Amino acid sequence: MFKNYLKITLAVMQRRKFFTFISLFGISITLTILIALTAFYEHMFSGKYPEVNRDRTLFSMMLEERDTLDGGTRRGPMSLYFINSYIKTLKTPEKIGIASSPNTINTYGNGKKMKLFFKYTDPVFWEIMAFEFLEGQPFTQQQIDNNEAVAVINDNTRDDYFGKGVQAVGKTIDIDGQNLRVIGVLRGCPITRVMVAADVYMPYHLQKRDPSSTSFNGPYQAIVLAKNESDMPLIQAEYKDVVSRIPIQQYGDFKPQVIKGNLFPYFESVMESGIMQSDDGSAQKRFYLFATIFALLFMSLPAINLVNINISRILERSSEIGIRKAFGASSKTLVYQFVIENILLTLIGGVIALIVSACFLYWFNNSRLIDYADLTINWTVVTVTILLSLVFGLMSGVFPAWRMSKLPIVEALKG
């Protein structure tokens, strides 16, 4: 039966080439946009280089202090003092590293002006992240203790600042008025991986801040590596217990009574940092809900247009419907046929969309709109494409199929 449906579908597509073209064009454009968005989501939130341990890594990006009496709130990254005094006291994690939020600075190298992202880290940061070093090595705790002015840069910065292919280790680079000796060059990663990406990495002791400050607020975020995934809930519970016992600080007129801090997996920590705040880690569920609603709404307009096209296409086949009903074909059989025809059409549109998306992503990765972009068509994206094609096919095919299957035989034979 399915083989017959397939033959009929191919015959109809060849006979009604204009309708076929319009349908495939609308389907493929809609699915191409959704595929590109899926690939970008996967690029941002999957555990790719250098965050190969993301499945067992927790992040603390924000600390919130609330004045529940006067309604004031202070929210932002943390200070070294807070991380060292409270987060690094946790017993369950395997490793705890730090990294500052990326900042930008203008500098001059190789005869041109450059805008660089720089980040302060500690030596544990390099143990958690699996960066590939092309030259040299990361800085160590001993170099921090010796107050050495050193830096690690990525390969793009090396090529732009010193010249393409020039060895950079041992040379100096000017960052924020400091002449830093380059001790390592690594293969970079896209800036969309905000916790780890930078053009220049410096040890935290080079930051121009008062080392004696006991303020909780600062530029740093904590990266906590668990021994295994099963330890992650234990680490979160331990940190919540620590936060609940932190003595409250007062800052002039701002007198908070509540301190809130969480350790979340990467996705939830990004949402919690401002896009979709959540104290209980439910941001991921809400994001998927909104993403599903957006996808359905985005597909609804082309689906409605395709419904109209399908009705016009099926109306031209009213004589065929009448003959088949006269020979005993049931409404159910006709519905199956038209729905399968539409699903096959949308699957073909999905294949076209995959090809177009692959070409677009290849261009995007090589355009340097985002350095080191690595958007790909993988099994996750292919699966999403198939599901979207099926949903799109059902959305645009069920109503026309049901409507035309109810057409009386006499009216259908009249055309």
What does this protein look like?
Strands 5, 6, 7, 8, 9, 10 and 11 form a seven-stranded mixed sheet that branches. The radius of gyration is 29 Å and the shape is elongated. The chain has helices at 2-15, 17-45, 80-85, 123-128, 141-145, 155-162, 232-244, 266-275, 283-315, 318-326, 331-367, 379-405, 409-414; strands spanning 57-60, 63-66, 73-76, 95-100, 103-109, 112-121, 133-136, 150-154, 172-175, 178-186, 200-203, 220-225, 258-261. With 415 residues, it is of the alpha+beta class. It has two domains: 2-46 and 285-414, no CATH class; 63-261, no CATH class.
Terminal CA distance: 26 Å
Structural class: alpha+beta
The tally of beta strands, per DSSP, is 13
- Main beta-sheet strand count, sense and barrel state: 7 strands, mixed
Shape label? elongated
Order of helices and strands: HHEEEHEEEHEHEHEEEEHEHHHHHH
Q: What percent of the residues sit in helical stretches (DSSP H or I)?
A: 40-55%
User: What is the tally of helical segments?
Assistant: 13
| β-sheet strand percentage | 15-25%
Output the radius of gyration. Answer: 29 Å
Q: What is the domain tally?
A: 2
Roughly what is the average pLDDT, rounded to an integer?
82
Low-pLDDT segments, ≥5 res: none
